[in-house]
Amino acid sequence: MNMLNKVFIAGGAGFIGSHFVDRLLTQPGVTGVTVYDNLSSGQLAYLSHHQSSSKLNVIEGDISDKEHLQRAMEQHHTVIHLASNPDIAKALTEPSIDFDQGTLLTHNIMEAMRITGASKILYASGSGIYGDVGMHEITEDHGPLLPISTYGASKLAGEALISAYCYMFDLKGLVFRFANVVGPRQTHGVGFDFIAKLKSNPNELTILGDGRQSKSYIYVSDVINAVLWANEKVQESFAAFNVATDDYITVTEIAKIAIDKVVGDSNKVKLDYAGGSRGWKGDIPVVRLNTEKIKRSGWRCQYSSSQAIAKSIDEMLNQDFSVFEHHKTNG
Ligand SMILES: NC(=O)c1ccc[n+]([C@@H]2O[C@H](COP(=O)([O-])OP(=O)(O)OC[C@H]3O[C@@H](n4cnc5c(N)ncnc54)[C@H](O)[C@@H]3O)[C@@H](O)[C@H]2O)c1
Question: What is the Å distance from ligand 1's center to 100 Cα?
């Protein structure tokens, strides 16, 4: 069995990171959890229910500060790396963001691991590494890999750095190409966006693209299960896994679920389509991930895409509304 021991979570105050903290603090074999986060999109409030836990150490820091990162990483065995710019469209106005807040951060993480002796990394990659391959169902060995966003390019560069460090410096790395992840404490995403828009105008909902974009939406606990399951079962020094549901849902179907839950009567809301086949430049309208590889290790997804969307919208509606207000002011 591959033990986690003392775990360092880069980006642990964010959406997915805070769910890792919840799980790891109750996981046998975990002796301590350190969250390292600059709170750019994460929030201490996502961890406040663990305030009294002696196993959790929260460090506010930026991964671009190499010395501080290295000091914080001392004495850790496993690194879960989740820190990156979460907003794919942001590169349209800030073209360097995915290098500075993506590729470079992963390089700093790998260097800190090499120097401190942390031996295993579990990395949040994404389906964006594959580029736009239409209806083709993609397996992990698909090629050529031609991302169409700097976000996808940065995730691919991160995977490449991890692979290289694993071979050159005898580290172990598992990379996970997640579908769209949903659940409570989401800081972005289509369901989150629709709730924010409907709260501010319950009469009209603008949908980016033509609404026919069709992807897998996976519930956050299924993602945590996949990563921790693979960590335990997979022996290779480097491996990549797609992590997705077996089904897909369109953006218009998600809008209907959101309207039903936020407004109640879908006839009252005018749907306004911005047009074009994709939500924004760099968006991949159709994503089909084959998940046979991780299933062969024994992992199974609990929720379908529509169940995951419905559950996450219910849960987001119960979370502090100031999160959505914050989102609005940040575009
Ligand atoms: N949510 C999804 O649908 C999804 C899908 C595929 C991949 N991913 C990847 O999973 C990871 C986590 O995503 P998330 O949805 O939880 O996003 P998130 O924005 O909620 O979490 C990212 C965390 O990293 C922190 N961070 C960012 N830059 C940092 C820096 N320079 N130094 C220290 N901390 C920094 C943020 O404050 C935040 O807490 C990301 O890398 C994301 O690209 C997410």
Answer: 14
The secondary element (H helix, E strand) that includes residue 31 is: strand 30-37
| Ligand 1 atom index nearest CA of 155 | 43
Average pLDDT over residues 106-134: 97
Host H or E run for residue 20: helix 15-24
Task: Say which residue the tokens 């060995």 belong to.
Answer: 141
Number of H helices, E strands in the chain: 11, 13
Q: What is the spatial distance between Cα 26 and Cα 16, in angstroms, rounded to a whole number?
A: 16
Given a cut of 70, whether residue 216 has pLDDT beyond it is: yes
Encode pLDDT of 268-287 as tens digits.
Answer: 899 999 998 888 888 899 99
Contact 277, 207 (CB under 8 A): no
Distance CA 106, CA 146 (A): 20
Cα–Cα dist 117/233, whole Å: 22
Choose one of 41, 69, 177 to mutate for the ligand 1 pocket test, by most ligand atoms within 8 angstroms of C-beta.
Answer: 41
> What is the set of domains in the chain, with CATH numbers?
5-181+217-243 (3.40.50.720), 184-215+247-329 (3.90.25.10)
Q: Is there a cis peptide before residue 144, judged by omega within 30 degrees of 0? A: yes
pTM of the model: 0.95
pLDDT tens across 243-258, in order?
999 999 999 999 999 9
What is the position in ligand 1's atom list of the atom closest to the CA of 18? Answer: 16
